[in-house]
Every structure is written in C-alpha cells, then in structure tokens.
Design brief:
By secondary structure, the chain is an alpha/beta fold. It folds into 3 domains: 160 residues, D-Maltodextrin-Binding Protein, domain 2; 99 residues, Periplasmic binding protein-like II (D-Maltodextrin-Binding Protein, domain 2, 3-Layer(aba) Sandwich); 227 residues, Lysozyme. Helices cover 44% and strands 15% of the residues. It is built from 21 helices and 10 strands. The strands form 3 sheets. Strands 4-1-5-10-6-9 form a 6-stranded mixed beta sheet, sandwiched between helices. A hairpin with a 2-residue loop joins strand 2 and strand 3. Helix 13 packs across helix 16. The longest helix has 20 residues. It is globular. The two termini are 42 Å apart. The N terminus and C terminus are likely disordered.
Length: 502
C-alpha cells in the first residue's frame, strides 16, 4: 500500500509538463484530454482508502470504484496510476488544480459539485443516514436533534442536506481527517452520540460496530459519481460515461455491485455481536488448525474459518437433527469418502472440511472466473453439485448467464417450486439455503479479512499470488468412476457429478 501512496508524489508535475509539450508540438490544436491520456499511456486517479472505493485485499488493491477505473484504463490500453489521499478534502483540492484525471471520492451529485467538476454516475446509489449509539434516545427526525450536535466527515454528501433542511437548533460538527469507519467507531464507543454517514459505507462497516443503530435517512437516494476537473475538456468524462453505460448493459456493473454489496444484509445486531464474541473467544482455539489445513489445500484460512462458523459457530461437538456432526458439520458419507474417522475431533473435521471444499471447488467449471467460482463452490458445498447445475441450466434457459453468481442465485430458490424443479434432473432442493449460506460466509469472511492478516500461499512460478486457483487434488481413484466417467454411488450424493456441459 505504501508503494501506491508514494509512487505518484510528483506525477502531476510530469503530467503538466507532458501536456505543455504536447500543446507546443501540436501548434494551436491542443489534443483532447482523452487523446492526452492515450498518448501518455497513463490514467491518473486520486482516491481515498475506504471499503466502498479502494482498499488492499488479499490479492492486491480492490474496491468497487477501483475495479471500474481499472477496467476503464484497460479499455483504453493505458496504465491506471493511483494516488491515495487522506480524505475527500485532499481529493477535491487535487482535482481543482487539475493534478489528476479522475477523483474517486464516494460523493453523490450535489449542486456545488456540479458547478466545479464534471460528473459521471457510477451505478451505485446511497443515502445520508443518521446513526446513533444504542444507549442514547433514538431520534425520529431532525427536530429531535435540537441541541444535540451531529457529527460528519469533511466534504461529505451530508452537509448540504442539513443546510437545506434549515431546522432551527440543529447543529453539526465537521471532522477533518476522519473517515466514516472512524466516525462510526466513536459512535460505537459512545464518544459521539449522533452522526451522519453514507448508507453504503454504513452497510460495509456496521458489523464492526454493533452499538451503532440506524435512525432515519436524510433526503432521497443519490447515485455516487466520479469527478473530473473542469479544466479538462469533456472528452474523457464522455468516454468514461459511455464505458460505464456499456458495463451496465453487459451486466458487468451488476456483477461488481453484487460482489461488493450483495451480501451485506445477512448479519443482524444479535448475529454480529455473537460473531464478534466468538471471534474473540472461540476462534483463537482453532485458528492455527484453520491456517495449517487451509495452507495444505491452498485456501485462504479465513474462508475456511468462515465456512466453519457458518456450519457450527466453531463448536467441535455440534450435531444437527439430520446427523451431520462436528465443527465442519460433515455427513457420514462425506466423512468416509475423505477419510475422516472421528467427525467430533476438531482437527480431523477442519482437515476434512478443507479437503472437501477443494474437491467441490475443482468440480466447478474452470472457465468460471474468481470470485464467482468460489461462490459456486460454496453453494455446491451446501446444496450439492447436481442442484447447482440444475440452477445453472434454468439460468441459461431463461436467457441469463449461468457462469455468474449474481444471475444463478436468483434461480436457486426456484428449485423449491414444482413448476421449475420438475424441469430439472435432480428435482426439488431447498434452494433458498445455498443463497443465504453463500451470503453469510462472504460476510463472515469480510469481517475476518478486515480483522486479521492473511497467511497467503507462496507465489507460483509466474510470480502470481496463489489463492483458490491451485493445482488439482489427486485424481479420483478409478474404482470410484463408472464407464461414462461419472462419479459412482461410492461417493456421497452431494459429490456425484453430472456432465459438465450446460
């Protein structure tokens, strides 16, 4: 991360020198901003660190806005060069001096912004939301906050709404250098009783702050935007707008939105508080086992731990009414197949769960890219490969993409309805369960990823970080296959294969 922060300290000077030289060489006909970007081969972006925009993930930098910007740069065949600002105030200052091409600030379309910057919507909407500490009185409107200061970060989406409301006695304090999670942490501790944050940032962070409650919204949902300096002509902004419309049309934008926001509503207050309690009190007993066996099967240990929590809340002696047992809740058939003799032994169970997930993951078609391939593997782990393939067929038959989780998760629940499952090979399934299962695990993983450091596998020979895309496990023994290459009855039902083509 520090490399990204320091790699661009003087880039605006180089860019201005380049623009000046291009202008001189071109005589009176100055190239457009889009032409300048392509000629230099670099798209300069300034942003801030936030889960909703840009952050360091296991496989490098990511974030909704960053992923869009990276695709935009790739579409032009140029390098994306990122400068990380401390807050929105710095982002706006850099843009006002024309020292970057695009600002990713997580701001919505506001009257004052529209007069100072060119604006392009990104496809994500958010609202300003008033939050409060659980130990203080819940406000139902701004009138209830008379004499009780609201707190907000500087250059946010919220101040203009408070100004427009013109409620006598309502005051607010702007905190420079503080981001939304920092503000939420202070509300969570009780230091600040009331604050205003963007709803998308609250969604991404609330699980970490169980004492924070949502009170009411200010204004209507507004689409978040990218900002472009007015000193530029409109060629780059128009190209960005056209590109983002293209991503909306081909489904890429919806897929990215689902990736970052599609699993955030699964933890209630009680669930979040319980999870954080178990992270502190139960996880330390098993963390080394998760790390060891995740490494052995080339997984992120936090994903394996998230599966374990979803299955049993990290209870090694858990038993379900249907007879699945242990920390990873393995069925008897699955345990026998993967060589687990004692499902109640935490180490055996975790080893078995890791091995089983890798087996399932390798049965997902190779052409499905990450992270969707992992979401499909989790769904298969829960409901069985056959039912997952049935849902993928239904998805394709209905004109949607069977290789995208955002599409397939809409069809899995249809497996509970006779008019749909009667058309499938494997019939009825409780299709709502794998959807919730995947969403829960993704949420648990998100929390663990932000609380802990990864113990990532070593890079492969090409220098790439190896995560879930690993060499296959040992081939299935010949005696477990029939003459058609399908898995025989010696496998647990959830591992039996059907032909891979849809």
């Amino acid at each position: 991360m520090s490399r990204l922060k320091t790699a661009f300290p003087n880039a605006h000077k180089h860019m201005l020198l380049f623009l000046g030289a291009a202008f001189v060489l071109g005589g009176c006909s100055r190239p457009s901003t889009l032409q300048e970007v392509r000629a230099e081969g670099v798209l300069h972006v300034i942003t801030r660190e936030a889960p909703s925009i840009y952050y360091e993930g296991l496989d490098g930098v990511t974030g909704y806005d960053y992923e869009l910007a990276k695709r935009f740069a790739d579409s032009m065949g140029v390098e994306l060069r990122v400068r990380v600002a401390s807050d929105n105030t710095e982002i706006l200052s850099v843009l006002s001096k024309n020292y970057a091409h695009i600002g990713l600030a997580g701001l919505s379309r506001q009257p004052e912004l529209a007069s100072q910057y060119r604006i392009v919507p990104t496809g994500i909407s958010a609202q300003s939301v008033v939050v409060y500490n659980r130990d203080v009185t819940r406000p139902d409107s701004l009138d209830d906050l008379t004499g009780k200061p609201l707190h907000l970060v500087s250059d946010s989406n919220h101040e203009h709404l408070l100004e427009e409301a013109q409620i006598p006695g309502v005051q607010w304090q702007v905190h420079t250098g503080l981001d939304a999670p920092g503000l939420l942490a202070r509300v969570n501790s009780g230091e600040l009783p009331y604050a205003v944050v963007s709803s998308n940032e609250l969604d991404l962070s609330q699980v970490f702050f169980p004492q924070v409650k949502q009170a009411f919204f200010l204004g209507e949902p507004e689409e978040l935007v990218w900002l472009f300096p007015l000193e530029q002509d409109d060629s780059l902004a128009k190209a960005a707008a056209d590109f983002l419309l293209q991503l909306q049309a081909d489904g890429t934008q919806a897929q990215l939105a689902e990736r970052f926001y599609g699993h955030l509503d699964q933890l209630s207050y009680v669930g979040a508080k319980t999870f954080m309690h178990h992270v502190r009190n139960r996880l330390p007993k098993y963390q080394a086992l998760f790390q060891d066996y995740a490494s052995a099967f080339n997984m992120d240990w936090r994903l394996l731990a998230a599966i374990g929590y979803q299955e049993s809340h990290w209870r090694p002696h858990a038993v379900s009414p249907t007879g699945v047992r242990g920390l990873m809740m393995l069925t008897r058939n699955t345990a026998n197949y993967i060589g687990v003799s004692n499902r109640m032994d935490a180490e055996e169970s975790i080893q078995g769960g890791a091995k089983y997930f890798r087996l399932v993951h390798e049965r997902i078609p190779d052409h499905i890219p990450e992270p969707d391939r992992t979401w499909f593997a989790l769904a298969s782990y829960n409901v069985g490969f056959g039912h997952l393939e049935d849902a993928r067929r239904l998805t394709e038959n209905d004109g949607k993409n069977p290789d995208r989780w955002v599409d397939v998760k809409e069809y899995l629940p249809l497996l509970t309805q006779k008019e749909w499952y009667s058309k499938t090979r494997f019939g009825y399934a409780r299709g709502h369960e794998p959807v919730l299962y995947v969403q829960n695990i993704r949420r648990y993983y998100d929390v663990l990823a932000r609380l802990t450091e990864p113990t990532a596998p070593e890079p492969d020979e090409s220098g790439n970080q190896v995560n879930l895309e690993q060499p296959e496990l040992q081939e299935t023994p010949p005696e477990t296959q029939d003459n058609d290459g399908k898995m025989s009855a010696s496998l647990p039902p959830e591992l039996r294969l059907i032909p891979p083509t849809l």
